[in-house]
Design brief:
The protein is of the alpha/beta class and 448 residues long. The protein is built from 17 helices and 18 strands. The strands form four sheets. Strands 3-2-1-4-18-17-16 form a seven-stranded mixed beta sheet. A six-stranded parallel beta sheet has the order 6-14-7-8-10-9. A three-stranded antiparallel beta sheet has the order 11-12-13, with no helix packed on it.
Length: 448
């Protein structure tokens, strides 16, 4: 019987487990996660007001409830106090690492580390109740915010800042974050890209949502948009980019409407410095850019300062090394061949990767399906050789003997029940537990 560990319970991990049990009728899969909760970025990265995307948890649930799949939360692999990679290999015929890309790319400009400057991921983790998140007083004293980046995550954080609090009450957002947003004084949200509208990475669906917010109006500058050669005639653009430009055309032509908050979409501005006052973020200095005629941009030497007390950086993700695995620092991925981990150029028996740590932070959630399938095809082709090595009948018993106490599926279900009770006590729907202590207590069946 082939025994496989999948490290990571987000979409790539779940799709890997699903592909394994679908293609091999005898394989047993343990899905490990350092958190007591499954689903990865679907739980902790999708915006709370995106219920349709969050409902993907239901399909991931069916994978983790499969009779030959077992969820093991609170199992840290690698890092201080974590289970060493070499020890994990002793417990399973094969290990598939689906650990994502946990680091944010940096702007690399002066003042980036001032108080009031955060990665968008940190902000998202806070309002998504990630247990590692801290309540950093993100919105305290903030009247104007700058979001650097024009991808879907940038749109998400801009939208969360612009929403009326009552629109978020029905979400699973933690109570403290909801209260902070309700008490916030943010009136101006600037979402800024260094290139033009035809090169923005957001999807049209996400973009249009900004225009449908009840308490906010979208502002665009037609002259700024016109710097993009494709803006005047978007017919030659791919469909997704063409639709984005058409939406922006409509907003540029529409008269400005009064609203509590304004979301300003800015283009062809490159951040060069974070401005400081009193030891905190006071604004961002941008350089005007223009197309260079070769698909890129060039600076003009003209600058514009945008006042802000909050800077959220949303310029992409990057993989981080996992102790015991090879790592390519240039690509931010684990070297591999069709999902097989390569050590010094040679295939490492029984070690595999899938998801962002395999291919980099590209694609949408569904992109993980073919990625996982490729890795699983490689793994199952290797299975006869892998199964010549004897492994324990039950890895959980060995983990417990090693001092690791996994949270199994019934523990996760106990967390779900505790979150439903918390929401009911607040007159809301399900409300996430926001910290390690409450999650561990709930998993153990103790009162929260």
């Amino acid at each position: 019987m082939l025994r496989v560990a999948v490290v990571g319970s987000g979409p790539s991990g779940c799709y890997t487990a699903q592909s394994l049990v679908q293609q091999d009728s005898s394989v047993r899969v343990d899905v490990l996660d350092r958190l007591p909760c499954p689903y990865g970025l679907v739980r902790y990265g999708v915006a709370p007001d995106h219920e349709k995307i969050k409902s993907l948890q239901n399909s991931l649930r069916t994978v983790l409830e499969h009779e030959r799949v077992r969820f093991l939360g609170c199992v840290q692999v690698g890092g201080p106090g974590g289970l060493p990679v070499r020890r994990l290999r002793e417990l399973y015929h094969a290990v598939v690492y689906c650990v994502g890309a946990a680091a944010d790319r940096r702007l690399g400009i002066p003042g980036e580390d001032l108080p009031g400057s955060w990665s968008a991921t940190e902000f998202v983790s806070w309002y998504s109740a990630h247990p590692d998140a801290v309540d950093a007083g993100y919105l305290r004293g903030v009247h104007s915010a700058v979001v650097v980046g024009v991808g879907n995550v940038a749109v998400d954080v801009a939208r969360m800042l612009a929403r009326r609090p009552e629109e978020l009450t029905a979400t699973d957002m933690p109570e403290a974050a909801l209260a902070a947003l309700a008490a916030g004084t943010v009136r101006e949200i600037h979402m800024v890209g260094r290139r033009g509208p035809s090169q923005a990475r957001f999807t049209t669906k996400e973009l249009r949502e900004l225009g449908s917010l009840s308490g906010a109006g979208v502002v665009v500058d037609p002259d700024e948009l016109a710097l993009d050669p494709a803006y005047a005639d978007p017919s030659g653009l791919p469909a997704a980019q063409r639709r984005n430009v058409e939406v922006l055309h409509g907003w540029a032509a529409a008269p400005a409407r009064g609203a509590e908050r304004r979301v300003r979409l800015r283009f062809f501005l490159r951040p060069v410095e974070v401005l400081e006052r009193g030891g905190r973020v006071a604004g961002v200095r941008f350089e005007r850019t223009v197309p260079d005629g070769q698909g890129g941009i060039t600076g003009t030497g003209r600058y514009e300062d945008v006042a802000a007390q909050l800077l959220l950086r949303s310029v992409g993700y990057r993989g981080v090394p996992l102790d015991g695995l090879p790592f390519d620092a240039v690509t931010g991925t684990v070297p591999h061949k069709e999902g097989r981990v390569l050590r010094d150029g040679a295939v490492a028996a029984g070690e595999y990767v899938a998801g962002w740590i395999k291919r980099g932070p590209t694609g949408v959630i569904g992109t993980n399906r073919p990625c996982a399938k490729e890795t699983v095809t490689s793994l199952l082709a290797d299975a006869p050789a892998l199964m010549r090595v004897q492994v324990p009948e039950d890895a959980v018993a060995v983990l417990r003997a090693d001092g690791v106490e996994p949270v199994e599926w019934d523990g996760w279900q106990a967390i779900e029940r505790a979150e439903a009770r918390l929401g009911a006590s607040l007159g809301r729907g399900v409300v996430k537990l926001p910290d390690w202590d409450s999650l561990r207590a709930a998993a153990a069946g103790r009162d929260v």
